[in-house]
Amino acid sequence: MTKIGRNDPCLCGSGKKYKYCCMDDGAKQRAELLDELEQVLAMNPNLTLDEINAVAACQMQQRNSQPIDDFCGLSADQMQNWLYAPFHSLLGVEISTPTDFSNSPVMRYVEIIIAEAMANGGRFKATSKGNLPTKIVKAANSLRPELSTSDYPTHVSISEFEGSNEDKFNALHYARILAEIAGIIYLRSGYFHLKKDAQKQYQKHGLAAFFLPMLEAAVTRYNWRYFDSFDDEVDLRMFWVFMIWRLQRHRSVDQLIREAAIAFPQVWELLPNDTYAPPERIFARIIESRFIERCLEFWGFVKADPERYVDFEKAPRNVKLQPLFEQSFKFDV
Description:
- The chain has 12 helices and 9 strands.
- By secondary structure, the protein is mainly alpha-helical.
- α1 (about 25-45) crosses α2 (about 50-65) and α4 (about 105-120) crosses α6 (about 170-180).
- The radius of gyration is 24 Å and the shape is globular.
C-alpha cells in the first residue's frame, strides 16, 4: 500500500488533507483498534491470521459506517463516495432525467441552439468573436416570461437571464459552454456544429437525451469560478452532492453555508485575506454566487430569496425547490 502523504486527501473520506484530519489522531485510532483486537483474541485465542484480519476489517468497516456529526450524520464511507465517486456511481442519491424542462433556463437555451442547428443542416454561423448569433440571443431573451426567474431583475445591465449579446447574457453563455463540454456542439471554421450523434439522440429522445450529460459536465468539468472575480482556490464541485442534499432537507442558504464550513474546514486555507470582508463572508458569497445563483438557478432547480438587509443586518435567505429539483434528485440517506 502506498504511504499517504501529509497533503493527500485523508482516506477517511472527509475531504480534508491528511495533516488536518486523521494524522494527529491516527495513533489513538490504532491503539483503540489494537485494544479491541486484544479483547477478541483473549476470548478467541485459536483464531488464525486470516480470521484476525477479517475481524480487523470488520471493525474498521463499522467505524467508517458510523454517522459523523460534522457531516450532518453521514458516515465516512458515504461522504467518501460523494466526494470521489464518478457521477454515475454515487450512492444514496438517485439522479433522474425529468419529464418537463419548461422552467429550466439552461435546457431551454440548449434546445434553441439545437433547433437552430437542426434547421440548417447541423450547423449555424457564429459571430466574428465565436459567440452565438443575435438570432439565438433574441430567442433566448424571449423565453424570460416563461421561466421561474421571470420576476428577477429585468434591466439588461444586471440580469443574468437577458442580454444584448452572448457576452452580456450569463445564463445563455453558461448553457453554451456546457453544451460544448458535454460534447453536444463544437465550434469550427466560424460555425457551430451539432455533432452527428447528438442529432440522432435529439431525433430519438428529444431534449431529455442531454440532461444527464449536461449536468455531469456542470458538476465535474465546468469551472465554477468562471463568472466571478474572487481570488481563491475553493472548488465547490467536490461537495456539490452534499450541498444538494442539505438544501433538499432544509431549504436554507444560511444553514447550508454553516454546514459546509463545518464539514469542510480545509476551505479556509484557500480563502484570500481581505481587509474589508472576513473569511466567513467570502465563503458565504462564494456558495451563494457559484452554487445557488450560477448553478442551481441557471438550471432552474431552485428559486432563491433575493439578498436583502434589515437594519443593516443580512436577512435570512431561503430557496424554493422547483419541480425540476424534485424530479432530478432523490436521496436515500
